[in-house]
Specification:
alpha/beta
Amino acid sequence: MTDDTTLVIFGASGDLTSRLLLPALGQLLTHEPGRRVHLRGVAMELWDDQKWHDVVRSAFASADADADADAERAGGADAARTLGSVVSSSYRSADITKADDLAAVLEDTLGRIVLYFAVPPAVAAAACEALTNVTVPAGTIIALEKPFGVDEASAHSLNETLARIVPENQIFRVDHFLGRSTTLNLLGARFANRLLEPVWSAEHIESVVIRYDETLGLEGRAGYYDRAGALVDMLQSHLLQVLAVLTMEPPATLGEVDLRDATGAALRATRIWADDPVRSSRRARYAAGNVQSTAVTAYVDEPGVDPARDTESLAEVTCEVSTSRWAGVPITLRSGKAIGARHTEIVICFRPVRHLPAGFTGSADGSVLRFTLGPDVMSLELNINGPADPFELDRVALDADLGPGQLLAYGEVLSGILDGDASLAVRGDAAEQCWRIVQPVLDAWREGKVALDEYPAGTGGPAHWPRLPGSAVPHHRPSTAHGEARGD
């Protein structure tokens, strides 16, 4: 951690950099002040160093980072500000799709180099192709944001390009869900408890739901989102990675090789339920409505949206991991925008007991283990004797507050990148497998074989969709005046 690292952020002027990357970096450096980072911002905009320093200072302050942003280091005309453990900071205007510009950026570096592509996927792919014509210093790390390609073939082509630049263990395909504390806590709960570890299979588990419903609408992201949709934006990347962590075989260690081997094997075994993308998927987009007492415009009327694309804002896909551990267990991935209540969770529904002695009354449904993402809570729902009648079964939930985690999700990811530890990065084969899994659904949707349904913003989705396993509230129940529907 005391060695110098130059972190080059391509797309330094963008929203991703100021809203997520820099605040996470500031928080990381506050928690780990021994790091020595030289920060370089690169983008097309004609900024000067002072403009860049202002952006960095504001982002660091937003994450309660070290606020010593006014101290300056001597260094001639390129004097830089000390921001926490940032040794130097500067900005360069460049076209990263041109080899000459990339070569000039690489000359202005010290120590190990991290090239972080906070740019659209097409720009990142073009820049990586340009990098193949540049001498890249040994040990250079390349970090890329999802999506990785637009289908399996393009992901494979991008992987081949990257392999011409640096070895696989120096390529970090960033999926910040793998840095979420809840995803990491899932490993501890599963592997460190004899109560759970032996029953983690189809023998005892009836169904799984991995869900990320948010109250936010498009929020001005039409440029990207209307070409991606909920399936590509969330299911194909984030939620399939969570599925892999949840269903993988126990790895020997949590190191890079063992962990990524285990998650990669789980993805290779994953397919669409019954190999039927029409029956096993659903899609919809929101109409005008109210979310938490705020009026929301219909998706098709959002600025920048092309209604002819038939882009979905809500997607559900049911998969199966075809292994002896998981065969026969439906695993539903779901994500939606402008939903009445925020539900971000992993729901594991256990099978009911095989035999319930006569004399009990009430429901004896299977237990439910629920991991909620933000706030991070683990809840185990059990059947116990009721308070009035000892033979009447009642439902209780045992909750454990898992805490917010020491670092933001991007902080966990950046920590691994700066350390050169790819454990929380997506390996090349896994990126290709994720596209392979969803491709039948994408094909069926593009061919119009699955209807594009509609739901009013502020509800839980189309009223006729089946209720999700483990859900206590129908899909169509609207949000309460305070924004959250009770249940779930």
